[in-house]
Design goal:
single chain; mainly alpha; about 0% strand; about 100 residues
Length: about 100
């Protein structure tokens, strides 16, 4: 289990508590903060699950590539936002390269 999944669970739980307190007190800002933390917690957990799965798959990589794969996964663990941005940018480039220009 990655630190992202642990942090995600803690953040999500904290968000639920904030949201419940906001509902009890009628504090809409606290409710909104709680919902934001819940979503953030789910995102961190999902990211952590993806890293865990990639870690499992890296064990099946060819022996000469395992070190590079592990290095990439370590980078993804240390810099999750940058990794997500890089992957999103690559996805946009790939999606845009398939379009026909008029």
């Amino acid at each position: 289990m990655t630190d992202n999944r642990i942090e995600g669970a803690a953040t999500g739980l904290n968000g639920k508590i904030k949201s419940a307190l906001g509902n009890l007190t009628g504090d809409s800002k606290l409710q909104l903060d709680g919902k934001f933390d819940e979503v953030k917690g789910k995102a961190l957990d999902t990211y952590g699950r993806a890293i865990d799965k990639l870690d499992e798959l890296s064990d099946r990589a060819p022996a000469d590539l395992r070190e590079q794969v592990k290095t990439g996964l370590d980078f993804a663990r240390r810099k999750p936002l940058l990794t997500t941005g890089i992957l999103a940018g690559l996805a946009l480039l790939i999606a845009g390269s398939g379009r026909r220009r008029s």
